[in-house]
Specification:
The structure holds two protein chains of two kinds. Helix content of chain A is 28%, strand content 18%. Chain A is of the alpha/beta class. In chain A, the strands form six sheets. In chain A, strands 17-16-15-18-19 form a five-stranded parallel sheet, covered by helices on one side. The longest helix of chain A has 17 residues. Chain B has a single domain, classed as Aconitase, domain 4 (Alpha-Beta Barrel), CATH 3.20.19. Chain B is built from seven helices and eight strands. The chains are: A alpha/beta, B alpha/beta. Strand 3 of chain A pairs antiparallel with strand 8 of chain B, so a sheet runs across the interface. The structure holds iron/sulfur cluster (SF4). Iron/sulfur cluster binds next to helix 3 and helix 9 of chain A.
């Protein structure tokens, strides 16, 4: 058969089937399984007596680290003991290798072209930036896959995005995503695949912002075509793109949508959800804010810290605002130290924290009922970052930095 | 794997808040059962009997990832057949061992109180009173194995692959 999308080809390849169609249920081998700190919490843990392959498991402590209390401390201890007992050598413990799972999955990398990866976090579709079929699954399922090495998926139909042109300055992949979320809304039961003439101009970080955010429109799998940009990323890490998968020329899509990147402007996600709920920054500008956050698996990259530093150089965070900045990994933090970025951010009055999920899910600096926050993180459901009455706006890291200086939602282009 | 049971009919878009209202999520499990469908079908939990079948319309189980499917298992529902089942909810059905099928057209094939015969292995649904049939996506052998074991973790336990659980499980 030669009419499958990238996702369908990877699922078919992992289930030893010639062809699969939307609606099919397939049992697939899994190449990489990523348990997180949360899996080892007392309420979620069930200990398998064996794992299918210790070299295909990566344990990452990222959500609530360093352990803020005794319960988490005990969970991390349980995770370390389990890894040791099973002979799992790839453990990202608190320390210099620490980082948010999806950042490490892309940076090390653990997601590989043409492979399948599962993790307990819902933003696992992030790994699709590396042409990997990556998907979030539930905690009991993760235990199951660790023991058995396979799981099952219902095959969704695919929406293809043809990207052309290039993003204008101060417009980011986050803005592009917010633009798509407003225009096309939810993608329940659908895969999102990205290709087109714009690809050479999109960095790995930008691609990952996009694939990570696809969880916010309920996509199943999100995936980029493999190309020279990915090839270079892998080569620099001693890996190859051999398993990469392109769509068949006559692949069947639910819809093909063309996006001209130059038409995208800085966007702001309004509180609640991004689905049909984002606006151009001019419509939200002036809304007072008192909390700001740059970070998460979508936007804690060096590029994000640079964007923030460009805005904050020679400026001060408004005295009314707390700006938290959390690098996606300790490696990113270190790079930012060497580039002098951390000094710029701290001099401007930002609080730079150790890498973790941090404020993204309210694990740090939780919002109170009257707080109004703008964040470059992933999700703005009510209660996501603390109190359900707090208001959460989403924007690019540049937009967040500009808003932190202004004390109100601001257009980053005016801070250039 | 065949199931035969008395039918209860529900409409479209039955969401996880109707199955498991948010205010009950943190109550003890035995108490949670009492609130299933309290908003759309008050009193139903007292009428439903083990082995009964739920027939519903489109997008059953839309909403959150909370383990609402488990409550239907705990109420000993025999099977769930709908015009369509929300994807995440279907995943939970399989993983908690609730026989469930999406079959387009099934909702209008039944009246309440009729008897349904369902085979998730072949994907077929039959109305034993009218004789009409419809079929959906059959479960694979691996999914059926999870169902027979009583769920994912139970299957691991059965296979001797589970040594212990967190105290809350
Ligand atoms: S940063 Fe936020 S979205 Fe990303 S993995 Fe952590 S909690 Fe999930």
């Amino acid at each position: 058969m030669a009419d499958m999308t990238m996702t369908e080809k990877i699922l078919a390849g992992h289930s030893d089937r010639e062809a699969i169609r939307p609606g099919d249920i397939v049992v697939t081998k899994v190449d990489t399984v990523v348990p997180l700190d949360m899996n080892f919490y007392d309420s979620m843990w069930a200990e398998p007596s064996k794992v299918f392959d210790p070299d295909r498991i990566v344990v990452i402590f990222d959500h609530v680290v360093p352990a803020p209390n005794r319960g988490v401390g005990e969970a991390l201890e349980r995770g370390r003991a389990f890894a040791k007992k099973m002979g799992i050598s790839r453990l990202h413990d608190v320390g210099p290798d620490q980082g948010i799972c999806h950042q490490l999955i892309a940076d090390v990398p653990y997601a590989m072209p043409g492979e399948m990866l599962v993790c307990v976090d819902s933003h696992t579709c992030s790994g699709g930036a590396l042409n990997c079929a990556a998907r979030g699954i539930g905690a009991p399922e993760l235990i199951y896959v660790m023991a058995k090495g396979f799981t099952w998926f219902q095959v969704g139909e695919t929406v293809r995005y043809e990207l052309s042109g290039s993003l204008r300055s101060h417009v980011t992949a986050k803005d592009l995503f917010l633009h798509l979320a407003d225009r096309y809304g939810a993608h329940v039961g659908q895969n999102m695949e990205f290709g087109g003439s714009a690809l050479p101009g999109l960095t790995m970080d930008q691609r990952r912002t996009l694939t990570t955010m696809c969880a916010e429109v309920s996509a199943e799998f999100a995936m980029f075509e493999p190309d020279e940009v990915l090839e270079r990323h892998l080569r620099e890490r001693g890996r190859s793109m051999d398993g990469g998968v392109l769509p068949d020329p006559d692949a069947v899509y639910a819809e093909v949508r063309s996006i001209e990147l130059a038409s995208v402007e800085p966007m702001v996600g309004l509180p609640g959800s991004v689905v049909h709920n984002t606006v151009g920054v001019s419509s939200a500008a002036g809304t007072p804010i008192n909390r700001a956050f740059i970070g998460s698996c979508a936007n804690g990259t060096v590029a994000d810290l640079r964007e923030a530093a460009a805005v904050l150089t020679g400026r001060r965070v408004s005295p009314e605002v707390t700006l938290f900045i959390t690098p996606g990994s300790q490696a990113i933090y270190q790079q930012a130290v060497h580039e002098g970025i951390i000094a710029t951010l701290a001099d401007a009055g930002a609080v730079v924290t150790v890498s973790s999920c941090g404020m993204c899910a309210g694990f740090q600096n939780s919002l109170g009922p009257t707080d109004v926050c703008i964040a470059s993180s992933t999700r703005n459901f009510a209660g996501r970052m603390g109190h359900p009455d707090a208001q959460i706006y989403l924007g690019s890291s540049g937009t967040v930095a500009a808003s932190a200086v202004a004390g109100a939602i601001a257009d980053v282009r005016e801070f250039a | 794997m065949e199931i035969t049971g008395r039918v209860w009919c529900f409409g479209d878009d039955v969401n996880t808040d109707l199955i498991q209202p948010m205010h009950t999520v943190f109550k003890p499990v035995e108490e949670q059962h009492r609130y299933v469908f309290e908003a759309n079908r008050p009193g139903w939990v007292n009428l439903v009997e083990p082995g009964d079948v739920i027939v519903a319309g489109r997008n059953f189980g839309t909403g959150s990832s909370r383990p609402a499917a488990k409550l239907l298992v705990d109420l000993r529902i025999g099977a769930l057949v709908c015009d369509s089942i929300n994807w995440l909810f279907f995943r939970n059905c399989v993983n908690f061992a609730l026989p469930a099928l999406s079959c387009h057209g099934v909702a209008r094939m039944f009246a309440e109180g009729q008897t349904a015969r369902i085979d998730v292995g072949t994907g077929s649904v039959q109305n034993l009173e009218t004789g009409s049939r419809v079929s959906g996506q059959p479960w694979t052998a691996e999914l059926l194995d999870i169902l027979r074991a009583g769920g994912l973790l139970e299957q691991l336990a059965r296979d001797g692959l589970l040594v212990g659980r967190g105290t809350d499980e």
